[in-house]
């Protein structure tokens, strides 16, 4: 049976403009928190320091990590996580897949797409996402097959700059206690204390949060099981790979410095049907489609 429905736009970019204000606000807050840490580290702790080597080394390390964190956040936010083309549940498209007789495929009733193995529908993105782990409001995007690496790097670099900030705050407090408070910062002592305490609270909070997220993501990759699959208790119908092979697949190849770079493109194998023009036709009504025996 067939019925007509309006086709959804296949461009992933169009989905980015359909997110609600709450998610956009969290994305803005993420960048503002990093910039606040940048302000306190530079203008409260490093620039007033009398030790030039200390300021240069810590300034270089902190700014490098902050830049990599924001770049990873941008890549995780803007990269297509593995969206399945919508409206491809047509007889013509299924025939083009050249499936074996008796094979069963599933249609998503929400976005009318043929769901690949391990794809799940995201209620926020309104799409089915390959190997979807979860939808993250902090990157305003799903974490899936194509952008999990960037999300892992984002959590790792945020955890590192949070730890670095905490260490510098502790050393700065010790320095100010031993010296005159009016000489250890270009701000007044009360303003300095408030700025440092706020940074300490922010760094501690995000160190705990991002460390847990980083560990969770690495565990999901190594066990070859996404967060949604673990949450739903789905039985593995796929052949699981070893931890090292799963890491190479998620990070785009054999171990190299590019694993730590948010600017390197993934070189994972992609479905060749992803870039093929979809055959036009009417949407199949059934959610479970079995290829008839010849």
Quick gist of this model?
With 294 residues, the protein is mainly alpha-helical. Helices cover 49% and strands 9% of the residues.
Provide a descriptive summary of the structure in words:
With 294 residues, the chain is mostly helical. It is built from 8 helices and 9 strands. A 3-stranded antiparallel sheet has the order 3-2-9, with no helix packed on it. α2 runs antiparallel to α3 (52-78), α3 runs antiparallel to α5 and α5 runs antiparallel to α6. It is a multi-pass membrane protein. GO terms for molecular function: protein-cysteine S-palmitoyltransferase activity. Pfam families: DHHC. Its EC number is 2.3.1.225.
Summary keywords:
9 strands; 8 helices; single chain; 294 residues; mainly alpha; two-stranded antiparallel ribbon
Kindly report how far apart the N and C termini lie.
Answer: 20 Å
Biggest sheet, open or closed, and with what strands and sense? 3 strands, antiparallel
Tell me the helix content. Answer: 40-55%
**Widest β-sheet, arrangement of strands:** 3-2-9
GO molecular function, one term: protein-cysteine S-palmitoyltransferase activity
EC number: 2.3.1.225
Family: Belongs to the DHHC palmitoyltransferase family.
Pfam families: DHHC
How are the SSEs ordered, and which strands pair?
Elements (H helix, E strand, L loop, with lengths): L1 E2 L8 H5 L4 H26 L5 H27 L12 H6 L7 E4 L6 E2 L3 E4 L4 E4 L3 E3 L4 E3 L4 H31 L10 H35 L3 H6 L10 H9 L31 E2 L3 E3 L4
Antiparallel strand pairs: 1-8, 2-3, 2-9, 4-5, 6-7
Keywords: Acyltransferase, Membrane, Transferase, Transmembrane, Transmembrane helix
GO molecular function: protein-cysteine S-palmitoyltransferase activity
Catalytic activity: L-cysteinyl-[protein] + hexadecanoyl-CoA = S-hexadecanoyl-L-cysteinyl-[protein] + CoA
């Amino acid at each position: 049976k067939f019925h007509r429905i309006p086709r959804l736009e296949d461009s992933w970019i169009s989905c980015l403009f359909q997110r609600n204000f709450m998610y956009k606000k969290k994305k803005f807050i993420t960048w503002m928190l990093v910039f606040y840490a940048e302000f306190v580290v530079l203008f409260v702790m490093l620039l007033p320091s009398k030790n030039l080597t200390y300021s240069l080394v810590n300034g270089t390390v902190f700014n490098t990590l902050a830049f990599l964190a924001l770049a990873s956040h941008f890549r995780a936010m803007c990269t297509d996580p593995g969206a399945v083309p919508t409206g491809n549940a047509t007889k013509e498209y299924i025939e083009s897949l050249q499936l074996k007789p008796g094979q069963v495929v599933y249609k998503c009733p929400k976005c009318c797409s043929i769901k690949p193995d391990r794809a799940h529908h995201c209620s926020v993105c309104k799409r089915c996402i390959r190997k979807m782990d979860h939808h993250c409001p902090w990157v305003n995007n799903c974490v899936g097959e194509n952008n999990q690496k960037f999300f892992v790097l984002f959590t790792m670099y945020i955890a590192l700059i949070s730890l670095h900030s905490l260490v510098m705050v502790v050393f700065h407090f010790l320095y100010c206690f031993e010296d005159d408070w009016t000489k250890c910062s270009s701000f007044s002592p009360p303003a300095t204390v408030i700025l440092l305490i706020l940074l300490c609270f922010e760094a501690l909070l995000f160190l705990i949060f991002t460390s847990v997220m980083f560990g969770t993501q690495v565990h999901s990759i190594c066990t070859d099981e996404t967060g949604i699959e673990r949450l739903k208790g789905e039985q593995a119908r796929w052949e699981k790979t070893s931890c090292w092979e799963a890491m190479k697949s998620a990070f785009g190849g054999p171990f190299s410095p590019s694993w730590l770079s948010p600017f390197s493109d993934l070189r994972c194998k992609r479905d060749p049907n992803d870039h093929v023009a979809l055959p036009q036709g009417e949407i199949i009504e059934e959610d479970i489609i079995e290829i008839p025996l010849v």
